[in-house]
Amino acid sequence: MxxxxxxxxxxxxxxxxxxxxxSGLVKVLHExxxxxxxxxxxxxxxxxxxERLVVVIGRDGxxxxxxxxxxxxxxxxxxxxxxxxxxxxxxPALSDFTGDVxxxxxDVPLLRAETLxxxxxxxxxxxxxxxxxxxxxxxPGIVLRDAAGHVARIVEVTDATPAELxxxxxxxxxxxxxxxxxxxxxxxxxxSNAQGEFYLTDIVAGSVADGRRVEAVTMHDPEExxxxxxxxxxxRAGATLRRRTAERLMDQxxxxxxxxxxxxxxxxxxxxxxxxxPGVMITGPTVxxxxxxxKAHCVIESSELGDEVVIGPSAHLRPGCRLxxxxxxxxxVEVKNSDLGEGVKADHLSYIGDADVGAGASFGCGSxxxxxxxxxxxRTRVGARAFVGCNANLIAPLELADDSYVAAGSTxxxxxxxESLAVGRARQRNVEGWVRRRGTAAQQxxxxxxxxxxxx
Length: 456
Fold this sequence. Notes:
Layout: E1 8-14, E2 31-32, E3 35-36, H1 37-47, E4 52-57, H2 61-67, E5 73-76, H3 83-88, E6 100-105, H4 113-126, E7 130-135, E8 141-145, E9 151-156, H5 162-165, E10 170-178, H6 179-187, H7 202-209, E11 214-218, H8 231-251, E12 255-256, E13 263-264, E14 269-270, E15 275-276, E16 281-283, E17 287-288, E18 293-294, E19 299-301, E20 304-305, E21 310-311, E22 316-317, E23 322-323, E24 328-331, E25 334-336, E26 339-340, E27 345-348, E28 351-353, E29 355-357, E30 362-363, E31 368-370, E32 380-382, E33 387-388, E34 393-395, E35 398-400, E36 405-406, E37 411-412, E38 421-422, H9 434-449
Parallel strand pairs: 1-4, 1-6, 4-5, 7-11, 12-15, 13-16, 14-17, 15-18, 16-19, 17-20, 18-21, 19-22, 20-23, 21-24, 22-25, 23-26, 24-27, 25-28, 26-29, 27-30, 29-32, 30-33, 31-34, 32-35, 33-36, 34-37, 36-38
Antiparallel strand pairs: 2-3, 6-10, 7-10, 8-9
Helix pairs in contact: 6-7
């Protein structure tokens, strides 16, 4: 058994301006596959079970701290003077910590915990004082190694020789450093460069010059190093995470007919033998049971679907829906913030909003719960085995008792007792001869318009 990895603290740098996003929202709060970008980084860090987790914030830092309150210690980089300066701000929060400090970035959401665990293991096995993560994905810093294969230094692409530009190993900026070395190395940094900033990269050259052992671990998947600075990179990161999610779910027994046309957020959980057809979008912390079928072009947002539920095609479940065993929601049906009991059916062209529906109830085509009065939302309660006919309006607040019926075309404004039929239609009146009379009048009007009156 190899050497044990040292106790771990994680520092996440999230103070960047994000100007290339061209957004009023701070960069690390932009969503990627259903989570804010920084949320992915924190989840990865948390999977390593660190003793400390510190996030460096800058622009709109209060919004970032509020979004992730309780998950980390937040320190502010009041003046943005480079990555080295950012890590320096964490020293007071980590002054009593002894172990390894892992430096991550709030705009690099694709890193896997497994990759970082390999970095920890390599550092421990080699007895290194600093370990760094590298990638074959083109990045600004090229990693140069000596004849023995050890890291010698990092050269910027803009300063590299033609021979150095042929090297395909790049610095990701992810470092794992012994705490004692880190604070000493940071104290020696200087800002004698064109930008007047303190660069974390300089601790590598300084450590090598001091004879410290520096190890480098290359990512198996270079895309993990992708940093998000633009809208196009945000979209690329989202596509990667959705692909990973689809692969994870299929490995667990979920049938996804066409992953390339299916959008499933990272926090979605789906049971085995559930089938997801093309064009489906499932977002938020949605949970779907086993043996369900989500037909083409459905949208499901932050909802819970039980076993053997069938929805779609082209159905929409808005947030807060809970569908029990065997519920059927069909073509162009919208459900919002509602509980549908076992076996409920709404097969086409209906709206069910803010409703509690008992087992076995049925909604006919065009039936609607009228839940909003222009000021407040109200709930509709539909009992077990109740039947709502086509084109019926249920004006909330309203309760239909068990085994009640609503006649097609009714507008219901009062509670309906059990085993009763509610009819809320205007009285029909047939006007005999109306078509014939209307035809004669219409013919006379047309003649006058053409100038063909009695004197013609």
